[in-house]
Amino acid sequence: MPKAVLRHLTQRNPCMVRGEGVYLFDAEGKRYLDGASGSSLVCNLGHGEAAVAEAIARQAGTLAYNPFHCSHSEAYLELAERLVRIAPPGFGRVFAVSSGSEAVENCLKFSRQAHLACGEPGRHQVIGRWQSYHGNTLGALACGGHTGRRRKHLPQLAAGVHIPPAFCYRCPFEKTHPACGLLCARALETAIRQLGAENVAAFIAEPVVGAALGAVPAPPGYFELVRVICTRYGVHFIADEVMCGLGRTGRPFAIDHWEVTPDLIATGKGLGAGYFPMAACLIAEALAADVERRGAAFEGVHTCCGHLLGSRVGCLMLERLVERRLAENAARQGARLLAGLQEIARRRTSIGDVRGLGLMAGVEFVRDRKTREPYPPGLRFAERVMDACLERGLIVFPGHGTVEGVAGDHLLLGPPLVIGEQEVDELLSILEEALAFVEGDPEVAAFSR
Ligand SMILES: Cc1ncc(COP(=O)(O)O)c(C=O)c1O
Fold it and tell me: 281: Cβ below 6 Å to ligand 1?
């Protein structure tokens, strides 16, 4: 590994040189099925799409850079229109940026500025949830609840409040849905009352929790209750769809699975589909109009806001999402993937839970299925599975922290939205073989019950 590389990967990590559809190829010509769309559910269109490369080249040859705070550009206007067309009803404005973290930061800033414009200067607190992830910049890290990623930066993070996650497999209230009465959503109302609604700007949540929990959708009724509570107390509801949005869960946005309209949506990853860094904040028209009526304008800018190459990629991605019915494919192939994972869970001892929505699937590992006790963190069970998968030609996304943010292993699976049946079956068969190998390792078997 050259010295210039800051993040050390093991010698066993391959050097990828080419991508085609759902496959990547390394320098030795070995083929890998990309079960995580480029490590963190990004490459929704698959790899090596010539049409995307051509669109980028055409735009670069015409007009590459003209940020929207200078003047209008066709590619950006088209992107904004296409996003609004697939957004939940009532969404009318788009502020495009270059990463999911920036999208989250700008949602937080919009919320704060809107409260200021509306004469409520006290509203500044953001309520998030434990075991969530909203990005790695300091504002996003602060409202996120990813214990591992926050730890080193705690003194730099703005004070905020986190409520328990909506996580039925390990319910923080030790209840069962629906008899629980959605205590996890009611915790939001308690937090708002404790802080004083006049101090609370927004509540932020991932409709399907990605990296922090491994594809955990909130239970039915959760976001409907969140919406009622937010409206009651004048708090903005921000849906973080950076990972779960844009067709991944089988609908245009994951929040479409609930009967709910947020005030702001952060989206990213799949928007640039790995071909260009692209993300966006979507803002409810009523909220934006209210701010404008009061003579205020949103102050927030980055050098590469709404970059035209990214806008062009985003347009093509959204065109394909609609015309090639990629969300429908995600729903269909996702159902096959989840059914296959359930089958594997019946045969293998280390899987405690299988969950997900569409092509965002999670597998949680336990050493004891009855007690749901996790493997010791030092065993690095998820990494072992990742290594065994890589060896056999499959890329997966391992994660930790399902138990109070500090223990527990999971895998996140999210292949490109263009995946077909045979490729889903191939993914499942490699994963099962890798799991059998890991479970059979004497170091692991010593801990299994
Ligand atoms: C839900 C969610 N929000 C925000 C982010 C941050 O996005 P980025 O890494 O593009 O800054 C991520 C990244 O994994 C994410 O999963």
Answer: no
